[in-house]
């Protein structure tokens, strides 16, 4: 089994390269911060690698993709689609953990939150006789021959 | 080899069926020992309420044992299958740790497939025979739902009130009503109120990564603590290598390997296999002897064959409206509209639909990049922010559980090359999807998109198809004829009268619904019979 503790941390140059590549994938807009504004290249990529260490090799390949960020992304998509898929998977996973990103997308808190059902809530969502048409059609299962 | 005190009943596997049997037998005074290759799951370690919860399901909490590759897992070679097809969890609770707890029953006709549709086989038991056991395990698993579903004959309502269908369930229900199609509030093995050892659902929505609230009906919560209180001895880190026989051909225990690599022997009067549709045939095939050179209880040659996997599909729709996106996940609503066979569709059998909220932004990214059609459109770069804003809290999804029919070429065998960490043969899966299954899935995807459109989706698409379900069925089927089945209608081996199989292996056909409720009901029926007939049971001296 992979040991997350064995994942080597990125150095400063790698983090800078990662920030540039990540911004190419996830720029700011529509109320969302860019990837680098969300510190994807800092603690969030570290946490992501701790959780999915098997994607560290793909990240390494992506960081070494040739050219300026836009060219590198294009090269990865064209020449290394599996690497690109893993790279975009872990990078977006890191991005979506950032509280600012979560908030901008309508997710409260750092993770999912407790929200136990309220008294009467189940009935509320079935109001206006929502089930009436289903009940009016009656049984829909096939009858089984008694001899079978 | 260390030898332990003899058990009256040895259960191999601490998942759903093993939990039901061990609890039932111990509560009726039997001395039960259980061997489980995995360990206990610490609820505090489950990723569900941690920031990394979505990423965690890609590796440590993956449902794929090859990806997870923990000490408790054994390799499952799937290179002879169309795609990776097997999911499971090995540990106390088994795959209920990661199941969605969707708890629909099959219909009466599902037990008479040969009679009604002319394919596969009839079961040697009926829906009505199983009904009392369905109702019993509904209580044991803390099932929540609404009674009166016209897709089934009358029966008791689920023991706990339904969970709210929420804004998302209501939206799709309105679409189904426009089309005149069946739907019903979801029935889930998730406690809407505190129930026994289960807490009330907190609607985290991360059910398939394990329930951090202790509300889901996973047997590490619902069964094993109670079973241990009743005297069950549960041995973890115990990987069974072989079920052994005495000179009379009766099962007399099992050899297992502990986590230190030492072989130990657990003697028993009765052996119960509860290791799922891959693990059980693997152990039986490893248990070769002069009497059973092709594997234990395998005179029919069917151990490992007729594997059914319920290939799944999902259809998604993006809406203008914003939804609450709450759990459980779990199902909000379900549909049996296209469940029963209709040969005019060009295929036989059907599928159950479950509407569930996938909780989290990463899933929206995956839909955009992997969905049919949408996946080839620009997403990364400039389109990314607006696309994510349009998708998060704006997407609804139908999951489709397709019934695949039993075919002998779909099978579990022992891998001739790969081994697990103890040197035991890996399981090898050979599985090909039939033309019938392809047609079935395509039909259901098209209808599911129509449903999303009717509900007002501005765009609908197939997110995934032909993906694993974690449903492992049919590899030691039950039947009345010893020549064409492995166990009888009571789960007892035709070949070895004190060897029982209680997991999804015994399924004759797979139904088109999530199977854990049926696995549990069948296990409960077998356990009840074991108690009732204990005086007549042949046992190893």
In short:
With 148 residues, chain A is an all-alpha fold. Helix content of chain A is 51%, strand content 0%. The radius of gyration of chain A is 24 Å and the shape is elongated.
What does this structure look like?
The complex is a heterodimer of chains A (148) and B (541). Chain A is an all-alpha fold and 148 residues long. Helix content of chain A is 51%, strand content 0%. Chain A contains eight helices and no strands. In chain A, helix 3 (56-63) crosses helix 5 (81-95) and helix 4 (69-79) packs across helix 5. Chain A is elongated and about 70 Å long. Chain B has one domain (2-42, 59-536): FAD/NAD(P)-binding domain (3-Layer(bba) Sandwich). Chain B is 24% helix and 19% strand. Chain B is globular. Chain B starts with a strand and ends in a 9-residue tail after the last helix. The model of chain B has no long low-confidence stretch (mean pLDDT 97). Classes of the chains: A mainly alpha (148), B alpha/beta (541). Chains A and B meet through helix 2, helix 5, helix 6, helix 7 and helix 8 of A and helix 2, helix 6, strand 5, helix 10 and helix 11 of B.
